[in-house]
Structure formats: C-alpha cells, structure tokens
Amino acid sequence: MAMPENDTLWPPISENRIQDEYRHENAWYAGDETALSSLYMNETAGAIGLFGHVKRFFWGTPTPTDAKQRPVKFHLPLPAEIARMSGEQLFAEMPTIHIGDNTDDGSDQSTELGDTLTSLLDDSAHAELLQAGELASVFGGTYLRIQWDKSIDDKPFITAASPDHALPVFGLGGHLKSVTFWSDLPHISNVKADYRLLEDYTKGRIEYALYESNSPTMLGHRVPLDTHPVTKDLEVDEQSGIDTGSNMLTAVYVPNVKPKRRLRNDPAGMYLGRSDFEGAEGIFDALDEAYTSWMRDIRLGKARVFVNRQMLEQHGPGQGATFNADQEIFTPLNGQPGSALNQGKMLETFQPSIRWEEHKQTCQELVERAYSACGFSASTFGSAGDVAMTATEAQQRERLTMLTRSSKILYWRPQLRRLYAALLDVNNFVFNGPQRGDLMMPEVEFPPAATDSPNTVAQTLNLLNAAEVTSVRTRVQILHPDWDDEKVDTEVELIKSDLSMLPISDATNLYSAVADNGSTTGGVKIDQHGGYKTDEPQTGEGSKQ
Fold first, then answer.
1. What is the pLDDT of residue 106?
2. Could you give the CA distance from residue 143 to residue 83 in angstroms, rounded to a whole number?
3. Nearest of 187, 181, 178, 246 to residue 213 by alpha carbon
4. Which of 328, 357, 373 is the last residue of a domain?
5. Which of 18, 177, 332, 423 has its Cβ near the most Cβ atoms within 10 Å?
6. Looking at the domain assignment, is residue 253 inside a domain?
7. How far apart are CA 286 and CA 288, in angstroms?
8. Are 331 and 314 in contact (CB under 8 A)?
9. Closest by alpha carbon to 51, among 65, 66, 41, 64?
10. By CB neighbour count within 10 A (0-12 exposed, 13-18 middle, 19+ buried), where does 181 fall?
11. What's the CA gap between 341 and 41, in Å, rounded?
12. Which of 326, 357, 373 is the last residue of a domain?
C-alpha cells in the first residue's frame, strides 16, 4: 500500500472492530486490572456490538470507592499462562530445516544453503519464534519480518511483530500481499510532538516514513527520517526505501487458527486468525470473581478482638482511644473475678470461618474449563500431577493439546518456509551469501511434542531387532528422529566399521547390543540392507546367512 496522506486518522476507521478485539485480548494477556475495568465498565449494550453484553461481567461492575469498602478485585494471570504454554508447545525446540530441489545435481549447493540457513537461525531467532508463538495465541496471529543492520551484525535477522500495530493487505484466498507496521518512537527532549514510524513491506522492497503529530489518534504530517534519532541512521534511497533482493515478501503473517469467529464476515478481519482467548473471556471473568470472593473471605476471616470500653486508653477529647494488645497488667476491677460486679466480658474474640474448600473447587473447575475452551488439556499444565508415563500415554492424556498443536503447525510450516527462503535471498543480496535457486525451498519439520524415555526407546528397538524387520539405518532414525540424512548415514557407516572389528562369536548378540545402547557388536560384515553375514559357514538353527 502507498504511504497514507498527512493528517490521516490512525489506525484507519476500517480497523476499529479489529482494534477493539486486540485491546480486549491484550488486557487479559497483560493482566492490566485498570484496563479491564475501563474496557468493560465503559461499554454499553448497543454501543459496541461485539462486547455489549459485558455489562454483566465481574470487571464491568462498578468498584465501591467509599471509605468503608476497600476496592479490591483480583486477576489471576491464567490467560498469560495459556499464551506462554501455546508458544512453548510449538517452539520449545527449534524446528529442523532441510533444503533440497527437484534436480539431481544440487546436493553441494543444498548443503551450503542448509549450513548458511542454520547459522542464520541462531538462538536469537529461536527466541523470536517463541515470542511469536505466544503473540499468535493472544491476538489470533503474528507477524515475522526480516531486518538487518550492517553497523551491528553481518547477517540479517528475524523479529516478531504484534498484529495490533500492523495494517495488512490480503489478496484472494487470504494471501498476504503487503503489510505496514507502525511504532511509536520515544519523545525528543524539549519537543512536545509525537513521532510514529511506518514501515511498508512489499515484494522486493521496504519503504519507511516518519510522521510528526500532536494527537494520539491522528497520523500528523510526514517529516524527514533524520528528524528523529532512531531513524536518522537508516540507509535508504531517494524514495525513502530499500530493496531486499528477493521476489518474495520479507514479512509473513501466521494465523493462530482459523476462522476468527466474530469477524469471519468482516472484510478487514475475515483472513485474520482466532485468538485462543476467543469465547473464554467469560470463564476468565468468572475465575477472577471467584478468586476475589476467596480473598475477601480471607480478609474478612481475620480474628477480631472486641474490648470493653473501660479497657481503652483515652487520649483526651477529640483524640480517640486505643487498646494495647501487648499490655501485661490491666487496671484492677472492682470486685473479685466471677462476682456480680464482673459479669460482663472485658475481652471477646471472633473468628469467622473461611470457605476455602468451596472456593478452591470452584476455581479449579473454572481453570480446567478455561484450558479446554482455549484448546488445551489440563494435564499440559500439570493439573494431573507428576506421574511417570510413556509418550503414548502422555499423548492420550493430552489429546486435546496435541490436536491443537497439530492444527497450529499447519499454519506455521508454510509461512516459515516462505520466510526462510526470503531470509536466504536477503543474505545473498545484502551480505553476499550463497544464492538460492527458485526450486530450492527450505523444508521445515516440527519435532514431536512428547518423546519416550531412553529405556522405552531401547526396548522398542530390541523388539524390532528380534523380529528382524528393520535395518540398521531405520533403527538409527528411530533412535535419533531429529538427525538429517547425512548424520544418519555417517552413524550407519560407524556401526558397520565397529562391527567388522568384533569376534564372530558375538554375532548372536548383534541386535540386542545395538538396541540397548546404540553401540555395535559383531565379528560380521554388514550388507547394504543392514543385515549381517560371517566369513565362515555356520550350521545350526541360530545361524544366519
């Protein structure tokens, strides 16, 4: 899209419903109690169609402000916990990459590109993917974009961007054609104006524009980039942009899951993803109300001591009276204890009961309902306790989480392929890295969410060996599912080499030894299929040829 005209309303009015969604999702995610109260108390039925019903919400009820009623509302950070877990389910381990093409003579080039891409996708990129996974859970989607700064590093890098500060343009089928990001820059000393930077990503190019404004809702007028310290060092051409050297967009939008139910018929929001929070806001609100009630019971359940007026120490007219609970000797009473003169109690305590069990059960039920509404099993968050189980048992108990994860991977994999291909193009164009062919697209594979313990894997391999239905190469792949073909082939050759050095008498222990510890046994020669044979003929039922 072209850069907007001066004094334009920003964000555009077409984004109002989308921005309303983002504000509510961000309030739950950030746990901002002030924002929650403000959003839900200021909305009235009919004023905002999406959230008009929220006057019934706990956060939509007025908070008492008189001196006799302490205004206390508690928020449990469950939405933030769910978003964090969503990101970790996807990117606790970095997805593996592999580069290939449809030709037979590109193996060397593929290896070079693969090594280059691996070096680009370092720990910083992993951290950005974790952040992006969390943002997608909150806002229903996230952006990943490619940036670089020659004064800092000699390679491009990936950064995550929140969708509440982006204006996308989608083509037919929801394919991202361009996107404009905006960010509010720090204030300049002795300058009252606000500055907003716009970055417009299109295929092969990024354009920058700086706007100066005196209103938070208006874009203001465009000024030179060197007006602000943050943008003055940007290396741009005469059109205030830079070429990326790629025929692909250097930014991608990854929807969390689709459709976004509340905006599926909205022209501006129909291609956006759905937040994990959508439909669970009422449960979050009920949980905060239940927990606030629990805390109120604790606050009101404090022990109270009622003291006879005669035991108070008077401080004079208008100065009030106090009682020292640590005082050891009190003024003697007129009469013996228990006499008629001392029938009234001078001290009396009161200890209300706290309904902690009822509150705990209510909160626990609401928490589990919230997990389910957001697409996760309660056991994913440890609600089932620390119980040892195999990967199969874990997947059965966490079936809902596994299904949700698999659904999200369907949206992540193609976008990461596009982003990684563009990353190689930028690295070639800007930093003279290896060139990528049009047919050489990176392949992205996500690791399994649950893996078996080494003992379980060893037992499985032992059974496969005894059944004589797998080759050495297959067993190596089972033991190391994250290895690429090159590593697997190297390990197979090492196994063959080790086997050839062992005595023939150990041949009968070949399979069990490989399965138990990954080492090799033999006195035998391994053929190309992973089978074995000896140099001398053997007889008997146990011999193998």
1. 47
2. 16
3. 187
4. 373
5. 423
6. no
7. 5
8. no
9. 41
10. buried
11. 58
12. 373
Residue 439 — φ and ψ, nearest 5°?
-85, -5
Instruction: Report whether 520 contacts 530 (CB < 8 A).
Output: no
Whether 117 contacts 97, CB under 8 Å? yes
Please report, as a single letter, which amino acid is at residue 186.
P
- CA dihedral sign, ordered 393, 398, 403, 409: negative
403-439 pLDDT tens trace: 999 999 999 999 999 999 999 999 999 999 999 987 7
Number of domains composing the chain = 3
Q: Are strands 347-350 and 442-445 parallel, antiparallel or unpaired?
A: unpaired
Of 19-28, 198-207, 481-490, the range with the lowest mean pLDDT is 481-490
Whether 366 is in a domain gets the answer yes
d(CA 440, CA 421): 8
For the entire predicted model, the pTM comes to: 0.75
pLDDT for residue 308 is more than 60: yes
Domain that holds residue 486: 454-533
DSSP labels, 160-185: EE-GGGEEEEE-GGG-EEEEEEEEEP
Q: Do residues 243 and 426 touch, judged by C-beta distance below 8 A?
A: no
What is the rounded distance in angstroms from the CA atom of residue 369 to the CA atom of residue 365?
Answer: 6
Cα 277 to Cα 27, 28, 140, 261, 372, distances in angstroms = 11, 9, 9, 12, 11
Q: Is 541 part of any domain?
A: no
Who contacts 365 (Cβ-Cβ below 8 Å, separation ≥6)?
Answer: none
Separation of alpha carbons 285 and 291, rounded Å: 10
Separation CA 247–CA 495 (nearest Å): 45
Give the strand pairing for 241-243 and 304-307. unpaired
Instruction: Examine residue 475 and state whether it is found in any structural domain, yes or no.
Output: yes
